[in-house]
Amino acid sequence: MTSKNTIRHNAVDAGCVDSWLVSAGRDHRPGAPLNVPPVPASNFVLGERRAYSRDDGTPSWEALEEIVGGLEGGSSVSFASGMAGIAAVFDQLHTGSLVALSDDCYQAVAGIASSGQTRGRWTVHRIAVTDTARWVEMCGVADLIWLESPSNPLLTVADLDTICAAPRKRGAILGVDNTFATPINQRPLALGADVSMQSATKFIGGHSDLLSGVVTVRDANLLEALRKSREFTGATPGALETFLAVRGAS
What pLDDT, in 10s, does the model give residues 89-102? Predict the structure, then answer.
């Protein structure tokens, strides 16, 4: 599994996803349980890299992160919900940032964007999902470009190939909510996005019995920043929820 201080760019070939997914996220040592069990512990015996779960993760979280990271082609951070993951991305913005957001998007995302604007943290520009020229323009000036494709709830599809390839402002983050497409159908990171987000509550979990979110990136600094955001805000996933999400994904 990926250690806390490293990043691995997973590259699961599309032709072998089914066979890889059967064993992904599992402990392959002889005698280990076939499925990583739920680990609800908050504390661990000192001496190895893991001491406190909020800071250092658990085997349950890491199993889910390995699976989604492999499917998305990057390294993942799991959260208590999809919105917790999105909030961690927004948490990377400095005061006075410019946010480009789809006109059709999940209402909770519109809520966090509006709330931050009201408090003076950032300015939000809403853009039609299909207005590719405007998205390309905003890539040059916005600090966060946040897309959903297909969007929620209208299932509008953005031209991610063009938008993700557009030149971006230095330090900008381009994120894609990939929940409805899933990494089986679309890989935003391979197109040039900085962030791909899955609400694992939906297709990854698959059984409407959990809340979970997973954010996947290719940049080591952003990976660590998202982990720190999870640590500082306590937006950690539950042991049972991650166990169930691994079951649903596999």
Answer: 999 999 999 999 99
